[in-house]
Design brief:
This protein is an all-alpha fold. It has ten helices and no strands.
């Protein structure tokens, strides 16, 4: 990998993917392979397990709820079925909470932290190993959690505003007897909502790396990510859309497969196809996390911010200082890795 600082700002859409792939298969691949097995593999496994379990429980809840609506309350099966709905609803809530806490809040953020730090080490030509990366993860993760929670808060507020606007459009349309106009306005609001959610997620991708590699967190990290993306918004959105489409295809295919689990589909075929979807998801998540950090460095270079080995190395060493392992940053320009 021979990318110089002045060249990073000129990396285009395809070049970013190529650069990210070269990082993964470079001489540092042993670190990325361990991050992959320790964090990304269990996260993706938990993600697909949550989809399978949620799909099954939701199906049972919907079927039983429909049966309850059509059943007389004096029927001897009514109360047992009602208890079953309550049980499945509770299990669904527990599994969803576990996925959020263990999957999203821990494994996902740990993976983002580890990959961002490892990629930064690659560009700083800083000697490191998997154990050192793992020691750094908890300290950087604390900042990332605050940014993630701020992201959730912003999205919840955005969703609440969206729901309020949709309801308002329907109420005004019904009272004014202008249903068609209300529907048109509602469609426009939905389109704006989708665009807004995409932009929030693009901002989160940049803010997550900022939280790991800079002294920013929460609202400051989002403000910083907005500043970095100026002039590169189309590139960031384009890259995000590629991963979003691929993720939807993989998850959608797996969701359909999960729905066929109890069908006449041979179990061998089901297992093989499930493994294929799982491997595709693993590769997508691994590449996506590396691309996030490369995009961050591209944006920094575009704004002529220093990304030489010395400045980047100082930031990385700040994490190790708490363990008494301050490293010596190399006062040379970013060169070959």
């Amino acid at each position: 990998m021979n990318t110089q600082p002045e060249q990073l700002k000129h990396l285009g859409f395809f070049a970013i993917f190529k650069e990210s792939y070269k990082i993964i298969v470079s001489k540092w691949r042993y670190i990325f392979s361990k991050i992959f097995l320790a964090l990304i593999f269990p996260f993706c496994l938990l993600m697909l397990a949550d989809m399978l379990i949620s799909s099954h429980l939701q199906g049972r809840i919907i079927d039983n709820s429909i049966n309850l609506d059509e059943m007389d309350s004096n029927n001897r099966y009514y109360n047992p079925m009602k208890r079953e709905v309550a049980l499945h609803s509770t299990l669904l809530g527990v599994f969803t909470l576990l996925y959020f806490l263990v999957g999203l809040l821990v494994l996902n953020l740990f993976a983002i932290t580890a990959v961002s730090y490892a990629v930064a080490c690659v560009y700083a030509s800083k000697d490191t190993n998997f154990k050192q990366v793992i020691r750094v993860v908890p300290k950087a993760w604390k900042k990332l959690v605050l940014t993630y929670l701020w992201n959730l808060f912003l999205q919840l507020v955005f969703v609440a505003v969206f729901v309020a606007l949709v309801v308002l459009c329907l109420v005004i349309g019904i009272r004014a007897k202008q249903i068609v106009l209300a529907i048109v306005i509602g469609v426009i609001v939905v389109i704006l909502f989708i665009v807004g959610m995409i932009y929030f997620n693009v901002m989160w991708g940049m803010a997550s790396v900022v939280s790991v590699l800079e002294e920013c967190r929460g609202p400051r990290a989002f403000k910083r990510s907005g500043e970095l993306m100026k002039g590169k918004k189309k590139l960031n959105i384009g890259v995000y859309m590629v991963f979003l489409v691929l993720l939807v295809v993989i998850q959608g295919g797996y969701w359909v497969l999960a729905g066929l689990f109890n069908s006449s589909l041979p179990i061998v075929v089901y297992v093989i196809v499930a493994i294929v979807f799982f491997l595709l998801l693993l590769g997508l998540v691994m590449l996506g996390l590396v691309v996030q950090t490369v995009l961050y460095l591209v944006c920094k270079s575009y704004h002529n911010e220093s990304i030489d080995k010395a400045s980047l190395g100082d930031q990385l060493d700040s994490y190790l200082s708490s363990y008494g392992r301050l490293g010596g940053a190399k006062d040379v320009q970013l060169g070959e890795v």
